[in-house]
Write a structure and sequence with these properties.
The protein has 9 helices and 9 strands. By secondary structure, it is of the alpha/beta class. Strands 1-5-4-6-3-7-8-2-9 form a 9-stranded mixed beta sheet, sandwiched between helices.
């Protein structure tokens, strides 16, 4: 029977302290921040479908993201709010960092000591307790554990696999994130998701399935981003239809060309 954080590893976990009112205000701020910083946030149709299915899932869900930039948790909070609105949110952060940015506790972030070997058991116990309290909870996690280039092979830490193996009826999704420039001055965010489908219930089965799904998601997203084809994505935030950049639009009009994204890809 799993230990509770009150009796095992309590000193290693700084619990989340969710506030619905604060989360609502922070979600507004997050969307505003993304609109100011990025030209668009785009997701593949498969990503949107998987998120909607996870929102309807009656049991816990785990969403494993690659970790390429400081923006990753902001993206997770934004799409979690917009596409999984009925579910509670949890996510881990280095406890030392969470001590500095304590407001993140109010949006479902909890602190863990990554350098203590007892942290894995303590985190698993804490999350199991939270899943029992509210089965419709989603854990957002970056199992690579550090910033990693999108072109690097996916290597994940074992914690999320052990947690998935001990969570009945859990649904897991792997989401790949890329940040890049297409046709605007500002960068864009690109998302793609793959289902995680283990062959068996063991931690090893889950570890292989998570690694494979994250690798597939990253490879599929890379091909879609390289295509520069907006039809392969749905805009979640920020896209201005048909607009590239005012000066470039003017240049295309002077030359008798359209200013659409499609035509801009082929303009010499």
């Amino acid at each position: 029977m799993p230990h509770s954080p009150t009796s095992h590893g309590r000193d290693l976990i700084l619990p989340a302290a969710p506030s619905a009112r604060f989360a609502s205000v922070f979600a507004w701020y997050t969307r505003r921040l993304l609109r100011r910083s990025f030209a668009a946030v785009r997701a593949t149709p498969a990503c949107i479908d998987l998120l909607r299915a996870a929102d309807a899932h009656p049991a816990p869900a785990i969403i494993a993201m690659n970790h390429t930039a400081w923006w990753d948790p902001i993206i997770a909070l934004a799409i979690g709010r917009s596409h999984l609105p009925t579910r509670a949110v949890l996510g881990p952060m280095d406890r030392a960092q969470l001590d500095k940015f304590a407001f993140f506790r109010k949006v479902g972030v909890f602190g863990v000591d990554p350098d203590n070997p007892r942290s894995l058991d303590a985190m698993a116990d804490y999350l199991s307790e939270r899943f029992r309290a509210d089965p419709r909870t989603t854990l957002w996690i970056t199992p690579q554990g550090r910033f990693t280039d999108v072109r690097s092979p996916i290597v994940i830490r074992p914690g999320v696999s052990a947690l998935a193996a001990r969570t009945p009826d859990v649904r897991a999704i792997a989401i790949a994130v890329e940040y890049g420039f297409w046709f605007e001055q500002k960068p864009e965010v690109f998302l793609h998701a793959e289902p995680v489908e283990p062959r068996g219930p063991s931690t090893t089965d889950w570890h292989r399935a998570l690694t494979d799904a994250m690798s597939r998601a990253a490879a599929t997203l890379a091909a879609a981003v390289q295509s520069r084809d907006p039809d392969r994505f749905r805009s979640l935030l920020g896209e201005r239809t048909g607009r590239v950049h005012p000066l470039y639009d003017l240049w295309l009009r002077i030359r008798g060309k359209s200013g659409s994204l499609r035509d801009a890809r082929h303009a010499p």
